[in-house]
Specification:
Length: 248
């Protein structure tokens, strides 16, 4: 039995569990719609994505992508500036692709979510009122009309894999949809603001930096309760609460 690979728990919470067994990732999801989106988005995306090995609801088996994650939230990235620029170029390829047939949340839904989550943060004394108020004002900058593009929707730095200066895979497509291009760029650089210039150099188009900052604040405010309730710690160094404290 010495050659049998160990089972690694990659992530586990009430909505989804992801296990790794050797070079296979097994996702078990309570919401089959998320897996439907993930499979279809990977088929449509013009980027390297995990190979679907098999699917038997509620499980999806995916092959590991080569390379290593571009970084981790809360940890310094060891990837080169060229690798970050390559990630920006990959995002541009995705945004230039034909739109998927389904839509992500619009500004009204996002504004409503922002109201609810800011109230929860203040009512439960999770964060100081002035910090929430300041970041809410910054977050509202992101709530403006945008031209929809094919967005990944959850483009955390740990979801982009590189080998040297080349992007080798992008994972976790369950939030993919028509959305705001600047949200993907903000998610990729959340907690890694020092690499924003590299990403934008690869992306190749001028963007509104105030909107990027708005998405950093909006994401951090609206994700906090979910993170806490699912066993994650947004107060860890370099994570969401530090992003909010650094916002100007």
């Amino acid at each position: 039995m010495a050659d049998v690979p160990e089972i690694e728990i990659v992530v586990a919470h009430r909505e989804r569990t992801t296990l790794r067994v050797g070079d296979v990732f097994l996702k078990v999801d309570s919401d089959q719609a998320r897996l439907d989106v993930e499979v279809e988005a990977m088929a449509l995306a013009p980027l390297p994505t995990p190979e679907v090995l098999w699917r038997e609801p509620p499980a999806l088996a995916l092959a590991a992508v080569p390379g290593t994650a571009l970084g981790r939230l809360g940890e310094p990235s060891t990837a080169s500036s060229a690798a970050w620029a390559a990630a920006g170029a990959a995002v541009r390829v995705l945004h230039d692709a034909p739109l998927p047939p389904w839509h992500g949340p619009g500004t009204d839904e996002l504004a409503s979510r922002l109201d609810v989550e800011c109230e929860w943060l203040v009512t439960n004394d999770v964060l100081p009122t002035d910090l929430v108020t300041r970041n809410r004002r910054i977050a509202e900058t992101a709530l403006r009309p945008w031209t929809p593009v094919f967005t990944h929707g959850d483009l955390q730095v740990s979801h982009v894999f590189v080998d040297g200066d080349e992007v080798t895979g992008v994972i976790d497509w369950s939030e993919a949809a028509r959305g705001d291009a600047l949200f993907d760029l903000a998610m990729l650089t959340l907690g890694h603001q020092e690499h924003l210039d590299d990403v934008l150099a690869g992306y190749g188009t001028d963007v509104d930096l105030d909107v990027i900052r708005g998405w950093w604040s909006l994401r951090s405010l609206t994700a906090a309760r979910w993170l806490v309730e699912h066993g994650f710690d947004p107060s860890s160094p370099g994570c969401e609460f530090d992003v909010l404290r650094a916002a100007r």
